[in-house]
Design goal:
heterodimer, A: 343 residues, 0% strand, B: 265 residues, alpha/beta, six-stranded mixed beta sheet, four-stranded antiparallel beta sheet, 12 strands, 24% strand
Amino acid sequence: MKTSKNAGYIFGGLFFLLILACLANLSLGSVPIPLDDILGSLFGGEIGRESWRYIIWNYRLPKALTALLVGGGLSLSGLLMQTLFRNPLAGPFVLGVSSGASLGAAILIMGASLIGGLGAHYLTSDLSLILASGLGSLLVLFTVLVVATRLKDAMALLIVGLMFGSITAALVTVLSYFSPAEQLQQYIFWSYGSVGNLSWTQVGLLAIFFLAGVGISVGLLKALNALLLGERYAASMGISTTRTRNWIILATGLLAGGITAFAGPIAFIGLAVPHLARQLLGTQDHRVLLPAVLLYGGILMLLCDMIAQLPFSAYVLPINAITSLVGAPVIIWLLIRQNRMVF
Amino acid sequence: MQTDFQSAHPLQVTGLEIGYKTKKEVHSLATDLNFTLPPGSLNAVVGVNGVGKSTLLRTLSGMHPTLQGKVHLQGIPLDDMEPLRRAQCLSVVLTEPLASKNLTVTELVRLGRHPYTNWIGQLSPADRTRVAFALDRMELQPIADQPCHTLSDGQLQRTLIGRALAQDTPLMLLDEPTTHLDLYHKVNILKLLKQVAHTAGKTILFSTHEIDLAIQLCDQILILDADFSQFGSPCQLIESGAFEKLFPTDTIRFDRTTGMFKVNK
């Protein structure tokens, strides 16, 4: 068929772009490293300077992998939420996962200072931040799951998710009102998001969350396609809608929660990429869209990270700002050009 | 009773009561419904607004709990059926809008094969034959590649019926398949349904407000009423005067000779 042939070319193109983006991402940064040396250090060949090898293996490669996992994972959870809620505005965080993570981080950073100065510095290490925000996401996720089993309507669940978001945001506001400037700044820096500074072990942990989320989603592909007709049609075709809904929530929680714990709340990618992928491939079939959003999200995140690193300078911009700053105009441009949204 | 249980009628309803149950009260819409639909028949449910036609169809499709009585599909109690088994016994056409209107006609009809495909929804040659059959029967070939948002109401309705037909179930339940259509397309849809019932051997039950058309085209009609529902062939129902009691007689009356409703002037 015509469409599947096109899809083959598109996937080929996406793969090519992904490799290109990866290499460019590794090459650019405060110290530009020539492409030859990158390939050399990756595949054990010659390298111009020994320090470059260190930079690539211990800094840039984990960062590029993190960007790939973060971009792909957020995009996939956005796709899951948009299909579950049949709403083009849904993203990975509509169920309050990122608000939960923010609350966890806020309690750790700002709460620790309120309790007392002793050990506050020790508490707010990178690892404890990951743990706190992860626990925050998990808490919200379980609450949502409990509520979901009591609600018949997916739309009501969407509202509940937004309410959880408001509650946690309000708690964070109260906490920040009583916090000293230093802690406040630390919290704000966390909320900017970052794909750098992860050790190989942490990247490995993130990859486990990612693979678990992707694995569940692959098992859900058929049910997701049935949901395109609405929950009642899906039920009439033998799909258990409550079970499907719970699995979707779990997959989203693992992906979005895990990513937010390791990289902070990263906006926009999860909302935008599913739309971009639908527009690119002209299909609603999740069997095509799932690999497409993973690739597309990865590419976009690598590009955003490249821009955030401000090549040839020592500055690093907050990635959270870049994703929206770069992504939003792209979406607007695409919508105006095509004049219609594929949803 | 044992023989009834084992009979393989596509749909058998005994002593059914439909309605809504909340924690505080039970709101019954219709009681003591008894009817059996034979294989390969076209059947209509008629009744005034709010009498529970949609609720009946939802109850029969297992999406809404019964208050009392039994529903058997192919001789098996509906309540005992696994969702997947049920999806192979009955298909539905609903009034609610599609969640995604960007599917093409073919994609939508293909989704009807879900109860039979593997874990990832891959179509076998047999599935493809069935989809082609459904497209053909519903005269969808010319619009097969069009996305659903470009279709007229009549085309969309045929597509939805095509999806149910691709699901290849002995029983098809349709909720008001002719609403929003002009007279020509109403008749067109109903004639296609009749053809499907008689030539493809499907048992079809649909709710409608087009009583005159139902009288002309259906094998059997269920007149749904809160206290006294009646089921029978159009002729039997006309003979027994069932249609006269359907509406208050001060505005319209039923004319037995033509089988149509006339406005009282």
